UniProtKB/TrEMBL annotation:
InterPro entries linked to this entry: Inosine/uridine_hydrolase_dom, IUNH, Ribo_hydro-like
The protein, known as: Nucleoside hydrolase
Alphabetical list of Gene3D superfamilies matching this protein: Ribonucleoside hydrolase-like
PANTHER family in UniProt: INOSINE-URIDINE PREFERRING NUCLEOSIDE HYDROLASE (PTHR12304), URIDINE NUCLEOSIDASE (PTHR12304:SF4)
Keywords of this entry: Glycosidase, Hydrolase, Membrane, Transmembrane, Transmembrane helix
Family annotation (Pfam families): IU_nuc_hydro
Claim: Hydrolase is one of the keywords in the record: yes
């Protein structure tokens, strides 16, 4: 069987420990050709998320991939406070080299538009790991370019699960509800990976030990990142590996159960900000509602350990 041609891909991200794991997975997988990384404020401020993207590329010896700094704040409200669980540097204090290449001077949304208009329509995927501010601005400011995206696979939201920043709100959508509402209603092909799925993908300490024992540099680095993602030394399972589920869906969609739901995003200012509601008047979105958690971890380990 002829291997599938690598898919031209942009990663929009706010690294972030789990973002870092997803980015490293994408960098090592032959399934993706990473055209660029665009950054957004979210887990931590924009300067740190942009620097962390460069650090991950430096570790991976991928200085050929450009980084474009994106939105420093939501579309129309104050930005969230940095999440303590990612540490002061946003990446759990795990040792990474300094960036070998400065971020590009062109703003992220401008580059996204130019790049999409330069490629065949439908040929570029976006893997979205943070608040959807950059993609919303693209849809609002450059709709002719946004309409050329092949698909957006985004980590965000909660359907039947309790939220992680409110009763029904998940962090990425809560951080910029207006942006989430724009993207959901935009007509851009959207596959949403919510808490309903990501909470079923958690690493055990045995899994971390197996990655470390492989002695493959990428696997060992991911093991270190996951190790920093345990809530306490006594925990046997890590926090959910939210963002790597985006890459895992792109790699192995058969591990996920997808349903089309019509969704509305709450753009109020209360505790329901960013919450998703299923409504006949909502916009159609492909939503992952089930996952083979052990199978996802197996695919993560196999991919990370396949290359020296």
């Amino acid at each position: 069987m002829t291997p599938a041609k690598p898919r031209l891909t942009i990663i929009d991200t706010d690294p972030g420990i789990d973002d870092a794991i997803g980015i490293l997975l994408a960098l090592i997988s032959p399934t993706f050709t990473i055209a660029g990384i665009t950054t957004v404020a979210g887990n931590i401020g924009i300067e740190s998320t942009t620097r962390n993207a460069g650090r991950l590329l430096a570790f991976s010896d991928r200085g050929d991939i450009p980084v474009f700094q994106g939105a420093a704040a939501p579309i129309s409200r104050a930005g969230p406070e940095p999440l303590n669980l990612h540490g002061e540097d946003g990446i759990g204090g795990v040792a990474l080299p300094d960036p070998t290449r400065l971020p590009e001077s062109q703003p992220a949304v401008e580059w996204l538009a130019d790049f999409l208009l330069d490629q065949p329509a439908g040929s570029v995927d976006v893997l979205a790991l943070g608040p959807l501010t950059n993609l919303a601005r693209l849809a609002l400011e450059r709709p002719e370019a946004a309409g050329r995206i092949g698909r957006i696979i985004a980590m965000g939201g909660a359907i039947h699960e309790h939220g992680n920043v409110g009763p029904r709100s998940e962090f990425n959508l809560w951080a910029d509800p207006e942006a989430a509402a724009v993207v959901v209603a935009s007509g851009m092909p959207l596959i949403l990976i919510p808490l309903d799925v990501t909470r079923r993908v958690r690493a055990t300490r045995e899994f971390v030990e197996t990655l470390s024992a492989s002695e493959k540099p990428m696997a060992v680095m991911v093991a270190s990142l996951i190790e920093s993602y345990f809530e306490a030394q006594t925990n046997r399972e890590s926090r959910p590996l939210h963002d790597p589920c985006v890459m895992l869906y792109a790699l192995a969609p058969e591990l996920f159960r997808i349903e089309e739901l019509r969704l509305i995003v709450d753009t109020g200012n209360g505790e329901m900000a960013g919450a998703l509601t299923i409504d006949p008047k909502g916009s159609p979105v492909q939503v992952a509602l089930g996952v083979d958690g052990p199978g996802a971890l197996d695919r993560l380990a196999e991919t990370l350990s396949a290359v020296g």
